[in-house]
Write a structure and sequence with these properties.
Helices cover 68% and strands 0% of the residues. The protein is built from twelve helices and no strands. It has helices at residues 3-8, 17-31, 38-45, 49-52, 59-72, 84-101, 106-110, 119-132, 137-160, 162-170, 175-179, 188-210. The termini are far apart.
Length: 212
């Protein structure tokens, strides 16, 4: 089938960055991250490859659109009266839910540059969330750095190791089988509480040090 014939299969004007990002997510989750190409996404959308370039500049931009799609699925608006500890728990839990829902795509968000679009404005919103919940600007940035590093590292390994963990769960409970479960999502909540406790100690120490 020629490119012109492919393009005729999709109504003019029906493409957008949002529809392209959604199609790219479907391709990744079905076929794996290495399958993310302009051609594969065009096939998913039943359009010509050149049609995508009216909305997406290149492969890097396409990955950015996918990251934006993942961020849009995170509901991390401020909650009135929420403590920074509970905001942190909600943040970490929401990331775990996203990783479980999009295990093959999640690492695009987890490993994306935090100072570039679309992650930079997302991180600024998270910092604002922690400030609204009671932290100083300095402490919010410290907390966000720790939270992001923990969630990104843990969850990327967790979703990559899901088959190995499933095999370990079916095996006899020897020590090496338990070690295979170190990055099981069940352990994520425990680690989250350790992170929060450590941040509490650090911030309390800072406040004590500032006392006259």
């Amino acid at each position: 089938m020629t490119t012109s014939q492919e393009t005729q299969r999709r109504p003019r004007g029906s493409l957008s960055r949002q529809s392209i990002g959604a199609a790219a997510l479907r391709v990744i989750e079905r076929d794996g991250l290495d399958s993310l190409t302009m051609r594969r996404v065009a096939g998913e959308l039943s359009c010509g490859v050149m049609s995508l370039y009216s909305h997406v500049a290149d492969a890097d931009d396409l990955r950015g659109v996918v990251v934006g799609q993942l961020i849009d699925r995170l509901d991390l608006r401020p909650h009135e009266g929420e403590s920074w500890q509970d905001a942190t728990r909600r943040m970490l839990s929401t990331y775990a839910d996203l990783a479980a829902s999009f295990p093959r795509s999640f690492e695009l968000l987890a490993l994306a540059d935090a100072d570039q679009w679309p992650v930079a404005p997302h991180m600024e919103r998270l910092a604002d969330l922690l400030v609204t919940a009671g932290l100083t600007e300095e402490d919010a940035l410290t907390a966000l750095s720790v939270i992001d590093a923990y969630a990104s590292g843990f969850l990327v390994i967790a979703v990559r190791n899901r088959p190995a963990v499933a095999s370990a769960e079916r095996a006899a409970p020897h020590r090496h089988d338990q070690l295979a479960r170190l990055h099981h999502l069940d352990s994520y909540g425990t680690g989250s509480e350790v992170i929060i406790a450590g941040l509490e100690q650090r911030f309390e120490g800072h406040r004590a040090g500032r006392k006259p």
